[in-house]
Amino acid sequence: MASSDRVDADGASSPADRRREAVIDARLAMLQARFGERWDESQRAQVRSNLARGLELGDSLRRTPLGNADEPEIVFVPYRGEG
Q1: Quick count: other Cβ atoms within 10 Å of Cβ 52?
Q2: What is the mean pLDDT of residues 53-80?
């Protein structure tokens, strides 16, 4: 069941789901204003899906407990040229 399909016992979507949909709608409206004339309906739906997935991933990252000593998995070493 997608997050937008969740409902409370009385049949209404939860406040968190309504907030998430409002954020998606706002971000989609901003992108639609800038680029929307180039999209067909399927592309618009794909953008909306990507926005929803990004919010889900962000929520997942925020739920991951990290300690002060936790370091990134990847170490970045900038290229400084030959030699």
Answers
A1: 19
A2: 90
